[in-house]
Amino acid sequence: MGRHTPLFSLHQELGARLVDFGGWDMPVQYSSQIGEHHAVRRASGVFDVSHMCVVDLRGDRVRPFLEHLIANDPGKLRERGKALYSCMLNESGGVIDDLIVYFIAEDWFRMVVNAGTRDKDLAWIREHATAFGVSVEERADLAMLAIQGPEARAKFAKLLTPAGAQAALALGTFYGRDIDGWFIARTGYTGEDGFEVMLPARDSVRLWQDLNALGVASCGLGARDTLRLEAGMNLYGNDMDETTHPLESGLAWTVAFEPASRNFIGRRALEDIRRKGSERKLVGLLLEDRGVLRSHQKVIVPGVGEGEITSGTFSPTLERSIALARVPQATGEKVQVDVRGKLLNARVVRPPFVRLGKPCIQVHAA
Known about the structure:
Order of helices and strands: HEEHEEHEEEHEEHHEEEHEHHEEEEEEEE
Structural class: alpha+beta
Radius of gyration: 21 Å
């Protein structure tokens, strides 16, 4: 039996199909995965993300600690509530995890890391926090819900006080703040607009039920995966891990080499890779023939070499198979994918495939 979030019994009551995800029993879908996907794209849906790990970092030297720990620059966090997406690297530049950091106060930052990596993340963070006198507190008392879609913010705001609703609706993209006793953020969990709400575990079931009563659909990990892939968002363990680095994972934008004086973990390795040039890159693929793209399928780059699909799925929005793939740096606009021994044609595109419900690439008839 896996770990359970505070919403586990409610998921069972709602008839969710539960699967193991990173050691947690989580809902993959409640009714129709495609229906849940479209609910988020067209209206609103709610996801249980309480399996993710909320960590509070406190101390007088939290900022210097983060400057050492993560590849992006915490110097960008100057306004209270501002959030920053980054990778946490090992010495060879491999990705230990991708995460979000919030600036609460100069002696208090909040971090959210992935469920499947929480144990190794916490061990790594604590190991390096000691030298900076930083306390590391896992907030197991909190649940987290992601309310997503074009109608999500307005519907959720109905559950707040008038002042709280006004504050939440005024929240900028990639900001979070304490509102009505809950920490409410706007970081785009699925690539759609909405809120991520960190709240006491005891409040989570009531919030979910209140959202359902407002017409917000219950959504599982299946819809989350198709939504995030359409949005071109990497999934840890698929599109990057400790054997890959950000420069070959479409995450170069999350690495801040300036200021040059900031000696973050993995910097030297990434500078060597940057000087030599990365041999591989992460690209988007749109399948032009009929078929389904899946992880680990071989990508044939004519005259260049081979690559591999890291994440693949059928896109409900585009009604076509899409994928992220790690391929040789010299890959051009056309590739082939080995699908059960048959070579299918695919076009190399730049993610995202869909943004805020709108296709970002042109799809031709198959």
